[in-house]
Structure formats: structure tokens, C-alpha cells
Amino acid sequence: MPFQLLHPAIFAAGLACVAVPILVHLLTRRRRRTVRWGAMRFLLEAYRKQKRRLQLEQLLLLLMRCTLVALIGLAVAHPFFGNAADPHARARTLLLVIDDSICSAVEDDDGLTALNRAKAQARRLIERLDPARGDSVALLTLARPARSLVLPPSVDLAGVLRALDAITPAASAPDFAGLAGEINSWLAEHDSLEPELIVLSDWLEGSSPIERALKPLSTQVRLKTQSPRPSSVPNIAIAEVQPPRSLLVVSSLGPADLANPVRVRL
């Protein structure tokens, strides 16, 4: 995976500081004056035997000091692993809207609901974000009343995923006007942002275009939509009630018999 730095200039300054231990090492080396002394030859012999070991120890100590300085510079530069295809890409601000309206509980032939599919797609989108680059995500629901579960957008992707898992179908219709109001209220305080808005829902053939439904939305938002789902979903409703007989039985539940005429109109 490519290696990148959030602050490369700081890392370059840290590498330059590696020269400091080397300069200190060179400056502290003292030239000793030679003094002739008869017994010194025994000490010189012992010194020659230990000279290589001492030089190796000094070299290792110098390398450790240089490495420590370089690691400090690297830590301050905030290294991270990410996609190097566009290292200067801007941080993404993603607004994810999950359709949890009453239609989201409809199951397909595999037993999956529309909400299950929307949540799975949202999870994939969230996992592609890179918090180290500054990517953030907000989470909203569409059922009336529209709610903002995570807003303003957060870089805590794990927390957003937990909020996503907790979404369940609601017994209400979609609330596009409320959704636009939630987003516009937040954007009123962040007019410099241009977030991406993705609404995850099983749009069926014949559904009203989402662009029309979200017309009150601020022009700062870049709206991304899905194509309508081509497959049809069974929609069963009670269209007519026909009694098997045209006989109506009326009885009195009180102590007296029913004497007044009764008229029934359907």
C-alpha cells in the first residue's frame, strides 16, 4: 500500500536534524597530545585489541541517535497509508440518506428487504472513505419525520457504522421536504462545503424523480442518485368487499324488544 505524509515539509526538517548528532560526535572528538612513557606500550597493546569494539559501539550509538531523530520527525509529519493515485485529492464530505420508510420493509424473493440492501451499500461507501485524508460522513434517515443520526459529518467511521446498523423500518412515508430542511439548516453554517448527497433506496419504475422531490435542497450539494429498480414488487391491497348474502340481522342488546324501524345505508 502506498506510503504518504500529511506534512512532508516537517519530515524533511526532521531528516535535516539527523545531522545534529553527527556534528556533535565530530566536534566532541579531541586530539590528544602524545606523551612518551615506557609503560605506555602495554596499555597501547590492550587498547589496540579493544579499538575495533569501541569504534563499533560508537558507530551503533551514533546510528541510534540519528534514527531516533528521524523517527520523531516522521511521527510529527503524520504518515498514513492510502491511495496514491491522487495524493492531492480533496477530502470528501459524504451525506448518506437511508430510506427507512414503510416501503423499505418489502422483501424480495431472497428474503432481503430494501432496507437491508440500502444498509449494505452504505457500509461499502463508508468503508471506502479515508479519515486520514479528512474524509467524513453524515447519516440521515428519510422516513417522516426525516432525522439526522450523525450530523455534522464525522470521521469516526466506526461510530457511523454502529448508527447505520441500528436503523429499522418505520411506519411512515418518505419525508423529502424534511430531509432538505435538515441539510439546508446545517449548510447554512458551513457555506464553504460542497458535500456529496447519496440517497439509498429501492426506487421503483414510475417513482417520482428524486431531483424534483429534493428541489428545495441547497445548490451546494452534489446529488447522486440510483437508477430505478427494474423488477416489480407485489403490492396487494383490498379493492372491494362483497358480502356473500344480502341479509342483515339486527337484534337488541337491551331488556326491551326492538320496536323502531332500522335503516342501513352502505
Overview of the structural elements:
By secondary structure, this protein is an alpha/beta fold. The chain folds into 2 domains: about 5-80, no CATH class; about 95-225, Rossmann fold. Helices cover about 35% and strands about 15% of the residues. The chain has 7 helices and 7 strands. It has helices at about 10-15, 20-25, 40-75, 115-125, 155-165, 175-185, 210-215; strands spanning about 5, 80, 95-100, 135-140, 145-155, 195-200, 220-225. The strands form 2 sheets. A 5-stranded mixed β-sheet has the order 5-4-3-6-7, with helices on both faces. The chain has a two-stranded antiparallel sheet with strand order 1-2. Helix 1 (about 10-15) packs antiparallel against helix 3 and helix 4 packs antiparallel against helix 5 (about 155-165). The protein is rod-shaped. The model has no long low-confidence stretch (mean pLDDT about 75).
Domain count, please report it: 2
**Beta fraction:** 5-15%
Helix content: 25-40%
Q: Name the poorly predicted regions.
A: none
**Strand order of the biggest β-sheet:** 5-4-3-6-7
For the largest beta-sheet, the strand count, sense and barrel status come to: 5 strands, mixed
Return the CATH topology of the largest domain: Rossmann fold
CATH class categorisation of the largest domain = Alpha Beta
